[in-house]
Backbone:
């Protein structure tokens, strides 16, 4: 009996260790580790205002994010060499189409040479603006918290210009739905909260 | 109060399996930084060597679930006077990409070559930049940005390029530097990857026999470490108390030895498996996981309670050492061996470091051999006492003093638990500390209730179970506590470690002293107290003009992990001195003395 008690307690302790390990592993996968940003590079965190952060567009015209102030901005970092990024772009285009009335603005940031991005967009057009992030220094992915430069990476910026959410990897409809839900309905009278939840 | 003889070994085996699982778990954790995606240099593990004159061999070790695009691997030679030929890569797996068309991708490992020739006299080194790009193909599906690594390779002679950066004029690296008596193989001037580049995994200048000797000595000394000694003392007391027949004593001693060695074998195999999967493994890295730290603290606390005899299950947990001997279960002795290894896991004994450094990069058979010999060293003293009656007779006669000793030895266990809680405080802050303390109280409560509840009462057991589950819930909560905002480790003279910063300092020709440590590393703390935090070291930095760069590995940090691998360091501490003029770094021994540091810095600043 004594033995059995000892074993019982120790077995539970081991199960706890194994369980904790499993949980932490699960937890860890959801939040991939990002290396720290290089010294001297200020990065945005959730809740920070992005201010007038600006990048060139496909024609080299500098465009500031402040131009979309008052809208819910979904910044999507992509590149032509990134297959998962290309796969999610049609979904983003549809999202833009469905929720433009709610004040949603998808903006693609190509981590690619402008000519490569332009050639790709000619074949697979999307109806949201594209900025070019490849030549900016410091690298825009780093500034927005993706210090390893992994793609795809998306950032949700609230109507007040503050970062609400970030997501590494392909956006899934349920995440987008939750994001839109969290951001709440736009000021536009035509939008109803129920619309925001109906996401492709 | 008795258990049938036929059932007991089975339960013990079950327990053993669980413990081995938990240990393997701890190691698996240590291997996966953040449990998420690998740093790019680990995902695609690029090595460059000159395998024969006029040809650079490129080798990618692609981790499981990652792939590289063949068409996106490019190499360029930066040394003037050397021109590169066309890169030769094997055909990859063909895949159709909607936009890119037919692409070829690689999984596993890839070997390519880059021919080069000199237009005039052959320069002593050739600098080559390799760029590549790949992706992770299971969730989360992501792609890495194109990565570029630069290697400086010696053009003289082929053969495998030596391990890690070698100091200007000093043959050797971390290992040879700390082993003046070791067999010294003059190293071919090593490939010196730039900071952040993939480390070169060559053979170390420590031979297998010497590594085995060190492993054995390290295992022996492990017996005396504060976390293991109490458990073993109880076990020795048990041997004395038992007064069992010689044959039984011998069988039990062998079972204990087998338990220790089998656990080391399991750890060795786990490390091999993880290495095969391209993970960075180090001794002590399991302590980077707050959950493991919390569970270990609670285990030490529970063992301490049992030794103090303050809870009634305590006397029974003491069985781990003494009681089971009386009951005569061979499996029980085997299990004591397993427990000894588990409580030893937070400790690193002197000598072990070098042996482990060898093991972590050695061929599989040698790695297993080193682990086995480590186990042999740990198991030997107690096994000998059991095997040789003359030795057992040298121990003092059993008596009341044994009870006192048992209770006395509980205090090192509590102190070990305090240390682990302190480590946790640094990793996850006050919230995690509160949670682990709550878990300890719950464990004490469970043990108390279990001890006083009449046996066989279902309700009593259910309440015990509820208390234990609550303790488990605390561990779960510890896992969820977010790390506190990490302050840059810049204190006093030191600047925070970053590969980019190190590179820029080296490019500027400044001598640099790099110190990589962790809160859970006792040696690191001792060195800081004795040498690095002293006025003498401060003055030395002033006179030599060296920059003191400090990295903290208390938490998982892929950049520091890669840096440690570059120097074949099995863990922390790691001290590296970079000479004036941007030469390659020279690793120092893990135990520092003021004169050693002075010599190293003055040589570097020359």
Residues:
């Amino acid at each position: 009996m004594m033995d059995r008690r000892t074993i019982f307690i120790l077995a539970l302790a081991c199960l706890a260790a194994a369980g904790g390990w499993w949980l932490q592993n699960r937890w860890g996968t959801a939040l991939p580790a990002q290396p720290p940003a290089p010294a001297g590079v200020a990065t945005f965190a959730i809740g920070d205002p992005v201010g007038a952060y600006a990048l060139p567009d496909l024609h080299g015209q500098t465009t500031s994010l402040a131009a979309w102030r008052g809208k819910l901005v979904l910044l999507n970092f992509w590149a032509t060499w990134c297959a998962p990024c290309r796969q999610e772009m049609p979904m983003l285009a549809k999202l833009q189409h469905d929720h433009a009335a709610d004040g949603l603005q998808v903006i693609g940031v190509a981590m690619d040479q402008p000519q490569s991005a332009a050639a790709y967009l000619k074949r697979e057009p999307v109806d949201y603006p594209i900025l070019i992030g490849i030549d900016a220094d410091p690298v825009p992915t780093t500034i927005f918290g993706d210090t390893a430069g992994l793609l795809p990476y998306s950032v949700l910026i609230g109507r007040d210009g503050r970062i609400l959410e970030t997501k590494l990897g392909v956006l899934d409809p349920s995440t987008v739905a939750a994001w839109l839900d969290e951001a709440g309905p736009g000021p536009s009278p035509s939008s109803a909260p129920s619309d925001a939840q109906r996401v492709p | 109060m008795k258990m049938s003889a036929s059932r007991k070994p089975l339960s013990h085996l079950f327990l053993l399996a669980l413990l081995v699982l938990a240990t393997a778990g701890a190691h698996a954790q240590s291997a996966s930084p953040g449990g998420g995606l690998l740093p790019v240099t680990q995902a695609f593990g690029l090595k460059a060597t000159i395998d024969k004159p006029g040809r650079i061999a490129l080798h990618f070790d692609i981790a499981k679930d990652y792939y590289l695009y063949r068409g996106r691997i490019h190499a360029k030679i930066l040394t003037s006077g050397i021109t590169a030929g066309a890169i030769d890569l094997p055909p990859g797996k063909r895949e159709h990409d909607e936009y890119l068309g037919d692409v070829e991708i690689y999984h596993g490992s890839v070997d390519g070559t880059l021919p080069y020739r000199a237009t005039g006299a052959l320069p002593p080194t050739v600098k080559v930049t390799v760029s590549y790009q790949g992706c992770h193909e299971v969730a989360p599906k992501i792609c890495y940005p194109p990565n570029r690594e630069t290697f400086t390779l010696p053009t003289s002679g082929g053969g495998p390029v030596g391990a890690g950066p070698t100091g200007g004029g000093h043959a050797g690296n971390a290992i040879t530097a700390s082993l003046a008596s070791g067999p010294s193989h003059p190293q071919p001037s090593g490939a010196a990857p730039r900071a952040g580049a993939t480390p070169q995994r060559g053979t170390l200048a420590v031979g297998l026999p010497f590594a085995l000797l060190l492993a054995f000595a390290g295992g022996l000394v492990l017996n005396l470490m504060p976390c293991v000694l109490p458990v073993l003392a109880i076990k020795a007391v048990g041997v004395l108390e038992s007064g069992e027949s010689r044959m039984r004593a011998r069988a039990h001693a062998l079972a204990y030895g087998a338990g220790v060695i089998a656990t080391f074998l399991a750890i060795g195999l786990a490390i091999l498996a993880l290495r095969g999967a391209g993970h960075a493994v180090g001794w002590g890295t399991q302590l980077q996981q707050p959950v493991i730290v919390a569970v270990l603290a609670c285990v030490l606390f529970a063992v301490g309670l049992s030794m103090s005899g303050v809870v009634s299950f305590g006397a029974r947990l003491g069985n781990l050492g003494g009681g089971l001997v009386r009951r005569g279960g061979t499996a029980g002795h085997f299990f004591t061996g397993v427990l000894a290894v588990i409580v030893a896991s937070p400790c690193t004994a002197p000598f072990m470091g070098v042996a482990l450094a060898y093991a972590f990069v050695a061929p599989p058979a040698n790695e297993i051999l080193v682990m086995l010999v480590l186990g042999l060293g740990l198991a030997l003293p107690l096994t000998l006492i059991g095997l040789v009656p003359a030795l057992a007779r040298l121990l003092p006669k059993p008596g009341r003093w044994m009870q006192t000793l048992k209770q006395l030895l509980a205090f090192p266990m509590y102190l070990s638990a305090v240390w682990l809680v302190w480590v946790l405080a640094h990793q996850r802050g006050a919230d995690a500390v509160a949670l682990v303390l709550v878990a300890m109280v719950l464990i004490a409560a469970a043990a108390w209730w279990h001890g006083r509840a009449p046996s066989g009462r279902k309700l009593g057991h259910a309440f015990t179970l509820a208390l234990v589950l609550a303790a488990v819930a605390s561990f779960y909560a510890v896992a969820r506590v977010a790390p506190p905002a990490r302050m840059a480790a810049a204190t006093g003279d030191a600047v925070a470690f970053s590969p980019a910063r190190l590179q820029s300092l080296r490019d500027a020709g400044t001598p640099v002293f790099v110190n990589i440590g962790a809160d859970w590393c006792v040696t690191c703390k001792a060195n800081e107290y004795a040498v690095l935090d002293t006025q003498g070291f401060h003055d030395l930095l002033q006179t030599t003009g060296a920059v003191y760069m400090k990295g903290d590995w208390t938490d998982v940090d892929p950049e520091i992990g890669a840096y440690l691998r570059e120097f074949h360091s099995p863990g922390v501490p790691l001290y590296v001195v970079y000479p004036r003029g941007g030469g390659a770094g020279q690793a120092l021994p893990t135990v520092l003395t003021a004169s050693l540091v002075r010599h190293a810095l003055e040589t570097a600043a020359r």
